[in-house]
Amino acid sequence: MLTKNNDKLTNLMVPILSIILGFIFGAILMLAFGYNPLLAYQVMFDGVLRNPFFFGEALRQATVLTFTGLGFAIAFKAGFFNIGVAGQVLVGWISAVWFALAFPDLPRIVLVTLSLGVGMLVGAVWSAIAGYLRAYFGTNEVIVTIMLNYTALFVTNYLIRAVISDGGNTTDRVGPNASLSVGWLTSLTNGSRLNAGLFIALVVVALYYVFMTQTTAGFELRAVGLNSFASTYAGMSAPKNIILSMFISGALAGLGGAIHGLGTFGNIFTQSGLPYVGFNGIAVALLGLGNPIGIFFSAVLFGILDVGSGFLPNRAGVPDEMAEIVIAAIIFFVGANYLIRFLLDKMKTKKTVTEGGE
Amino acid sequence: MSQMNKVIEMKGITKAFGNFKANDNINLDLNKGEIHALLGENGAGKSTLMNILSGLLEPTEGEIWVNGKKVQISSPGVANELGIGMVHQHFMLVDKFTVTENIVLGKEKHRFGFMERAVSEKEVKELSDQYGLRVDPRAKIQDISVGMQQRAEILKTLYRGADILIFDEPTGVLTPQEIDELMDIMQALVNEGKSIILITHKLDEIKKVADRCTVIRRGKSIDTVNVAETSQQELADMMVGRSVSFKVDKQPAQPKNPVLEIKGLTVKEKRGYDAVKAIDLEVRAGEVLGIAGVDGNGQSELIQAITGLTKVDSGTITLSGKNITNKKPRQITETGLGHIPEDRQRYGLVLQMKLEENMALQTYYQKPFSKHGFLNHNEIKQHAKKLIDEFDVRTPSEEHSAASLSGGNQQKAIIAREIFRNPDLLIAAQPTRGLDVGAIEYIHKRLIEQRDHGKGVLLMSYELDEVMNVSDRIAVMYDGNIIAVVDADKTNEKELGLLMAGVPLERAHAELAESSGKEKETVANQK
Amino acid sequence: MSMTKLRTLLAIGTSAFVLAACQGQDAGDTTDTIVDDADETEDVEDNGDETAENGEDTEAVDFRLAMITDEGGVDDRSFNQSAWEGMQEWAENRGLSDDHIDYYQSNDAQDFIPNLNQAIAEEYDIIYGIGFALLDAINDVAEQNPEQQFGIVDEISEMDNVVSLTFRDHEAAFLAGVAAAETTETGRVGFIGGIEGTVIDRFEAGFRAGVAHVDEDITVDIDYAGSFTDASIGQQIAAVMFSNGADVIYHAAGAVGNGVFTETRNRLESNPDDELWVIGVDRDQEEEGNWDGGNFTLTSTIKGVGASIESSANLTIDEGFPGGENIAYGLEEEGVDLTRGNLSDEVWDVVEEARQGILDGDISVPEAPGDL
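Structure tokens for the assembled complex are given below, as produced in the milestone run.
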């Protein structure tokens, strides 16, 4: 019992230490280049936490990151590195916006549901391509999803220019019936773009938890991810679970993209690159250690960092590039949590060894 | 022999991991020119002790003396300098390199940056001849037999100037003939002045070559005895701490209808050649059919084909009267197959998952463990508790991960899971690999019990003793064929050894007849 | 929930910001000033210059400007940079300190609105969105902050508190096309666009028309990078074009163009006898074309983004904010131009001739490739 509690404590310590180390490293960097890290961090957190608008924006960002984080996590649980989250976000985004533009007169509840549903489905199918290729042809999902990312990017840009708009770079805004904004949420956050996506995210967090721990499908997925050999021996189908995990992964990313499209922008425009929310979702998932609640909180942290870093250049005199480096340092330490876990373990054994020696 | 100069003295060695003492005040001394066996169950602390000696771990307490000097073995490098070398259980060799390249790896002789291959090869050849190892220095590791690979490993330690050799469970992968040869090599080594520590849990090997034997149990050294004056039974009892029975206690089999019928089965190996070549085989209800053979002669592929993990190329497999050829693993399991896989950690368990989840690994989707796709955690827990209780799986709780269990208990958990489903046919592949005498005894008992309940048991093992003790009939596999099926009580180790080496039954009989009456006597004694 | 209700809530919600942000001193007169046609635009420019000259004598006006970059970032050596340089020049001319101007860098489209809100909170007099991508964001915040003055470059906003600054890029691109056609020896030239769209369409159309104006038989290779930021793509496309025999490449692709310069420099350094040229975009990119054997920037089309910001700011100070207006800059207003660069005298003469033709209305330059 004692060891179990210790494990839980360690599990919580790892991400917290990652964050603290990231901040310390960022501070050292800023000091080395002659900037004031205390001022910088103060500006960053004050800017977001003391201002309803920017806090709303941070939560809005966290909403999308929750989806991309969960999407990455579920594939990761099943043993896959779905680096294609960004592309799945994009296809989800464009399909949701496209659908909403095509049927503007449907009742709001129907239109919103269907638009999000379409975004989710397209994201899922897009991702399942990589799952299918992996399951039946053994192709490496990392390479396939990277390639699908670019395919998604250029197909999206083409569709925007050639099909959805008339040669422009931006589609029309979706109608009010496809809007995700919630009046009191908007007014509470002084007009930020925070929207109903937040509640959908919270529901999905709960569903994710139930799926993974309470259903036979979740059980299979976990088992296959942890040990596909033993699971196959036990009669589970590895290909089925590979495809299923990638399908759900893409569905979550696609839903995130749909909410990003309908909630953040209300349209889609030609992209010069893949959306950052896709890649940051990987860091969010790793920081959250694959636990849905952990993922939500790490998404909030990333939302705050993302929005807060925008204050650094103008209010703390820290150049934009420096702000990016500080954020990257934090992500690095998050990614290096295995290292931190290792150090923690080492410290622990050292301690017990000396205790034992006495 | 006892008052020779001591090359190693380990005094009062204690190694604590947290509150757990893996080694608790252990004493061990090694005389020059002796073979000293280190005997103990799995988890008794043998590996910890040897890791301390080879510099991988530092002791919490205690002293080590080498050649009369007190030393601190803080790293493998230090151990190397002190002349301590380890022949690992899992060879540390690069497959695509030659024997010589592997031996000189890290200590390459070179001149202006160019490797002096010829010089090294000559040195290796000389070393090999000196100890009668007969290794071809130019052969690539991947092209030579496992026994030869082991000799390369031995040469590697000798090349590095080791005077004290530690052999870590060296015979697990060898054929009986190879084991005999290894014993000769060990004798040759001590004759040349080397000293050997032999880690093993095989008592007959100790009897054959060791001078003295130190028994470890639960981290403590129980006793050091002269092997010549101690019987196998005494050694086993010391190791386990109670009286163990060696011979599997069993009544004659009462075989009934066949549960498994294999006809003309051909299975292709991953790279495309035939690993199993049109074999026929039958397992009847109420019998244990053993499959003997050296690793890599098609046994694994045969079992994978029966369990549905590999595609059958041609032929049919019938289980309990139903054709299961190329059916999915789940369908086969449901038809009535239990399977204790060869590599329990890789194929038998999901180590990171809870023990209770592992107990339901095949049945989670069935009632009462789930309903409408939702798991019933309570039922799963109760089921696990029942199995843990019934099969005496030692674990703090069913919520602990499978990884936290000892090897023997992991195996017990798998056996519990498989037997509890009451399958018509139980396949046990290497069910006692790496387990200690106590656990082996338990598992063998369970297999026989299953047989006596009128089920079929297919036992695949590379341990000849095991196959001979537990089986009623023995099928020997060589090069994808079943070279012979013999009755267990009408065969002997020699005959099986020849069959395993690919000698056909008639010639094996002829060869055995040729050998002297004296040898026949020993065979009789062994039986 | 109906849209109007939403809007009301939005308006209530944002009022706190608005109150804080609004300086409102010029708000009253803004809409009256109408700058509709070319002549008046020129007047605007003149006014601007005057103020600049007077700036040192008169008390410095307390007037502050901010800009929000698009995804290219402020150091793209092209579009955004030219806007920022214009802003710096404006402050210098006005004798204003550095804290009267600032920029907010966007790394992603979702940063536009938070950046705009940051700038609004800092109470700048005019906040410029640099690039067409910011149109929606500017419109949104302009609606939420009706008292704040905004500017948008390269797009036209309908909002009363937004001034639109657009450029007849195709006119300068036409001259670039003429220069390229006159210079090429292989009969093949290249055009590299950033992301396809109305703005870059003008560059492509103008350039192709310019080339065809000189010689219909010259081939123009067209390719788009799908990015304004990724220099490596620019380098790849340039490599392909040069390999296919083009010897002059015009890029209208922001930071992507840096890759075009890199590729050209690499080629010239390994084969110094080659004659390869790059035509720069938006600001004079002569500097980017330096190499051991001279300079390979043939010429650059100038887009007076900086100048347009300067002049609109000055106009606001002097006459009031031209909100709701579209100020279009072409050759005539000297809002776009072609540099002399490394053009030979003969080529320059032809370019000058073409310029006159456009000014006189003898040559009409198409705005989209479809109009060619």
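The longest helix of chain B spans residues 176-191. Chain B has a mean pLDDT of 86. Further analysis is deferred to the final report.
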